[in-house]
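Chapter review: from sequence to fold.
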Amino acid sequence: MDMRTFKEKTYTLEILYHIGALEDSIHFIFDHSTKTCAIVDPAWDAPLFLQRIHDKGYTLTNIWLTHWHFDHTNAVDEIVEATGAKITVGVNEVPYLQINSPPGTVEDNDTVFIGNTPAKIINTPGHSAGGICYLLDGHIIAGDTLFVYGAGHCSLPGGNINELFHSMQKLKRIDNDVMLHCGHDYGAKVNTTMGEQKQGNAFLLLDNKADFVNYVNGMQQGKIPYPADAVTQTEIKAML
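The token string follows.
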């Protein structure tokens, strides 16, 4: 397990990497003024998460989900039972959820708060039907929509390559200096900025929808290798 901590004006973002069978990244947002915490996509080890939050002197009040997949939600019910935490998920993700606890829903451009710390909701379907990202001051938590030099597949129920293309166009509008945090550590580096990804992530570099669809289909069929590092426009065209 690896860890990174980013202390900002109103909150601290802490990330645990390589958690559980699929090596998820688990994000904690600690609001300084209220001593409350939100956890993003809790899976695999609820006791570990609850103990860390308790040891820091914070209270877990919110669970923020980026999407429904089991490896991002399988600790939700246990945490809700222990804390009564409120669940937030994108409205279009509800039909796919595999949890017992009832969630609250959000839509594109809504704002949610942990204490006095706001996070803007960005709808980013494609990897799943109702996937969302949480944009905080200086950081974006993207789940599996966008990885370091990669992106999530579209092969599970609700996945859609065409929608993923449009989600990538939205993410291109995020400021370059915003740090990207993903649901898994699959890339060549752990920490990156949106500016770096706009320059080297094939999923963001492909402006033509047909080329994007061909690229993703080729990858899912094993004809195009999954990118672990930065690529150029020339390299992408050679793959298509």
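Two observations follow directly from the output. The CA atoms of residues 143 and 182 lie 5 Å apart. Residues 209-220 form the longest helix (12 residues).
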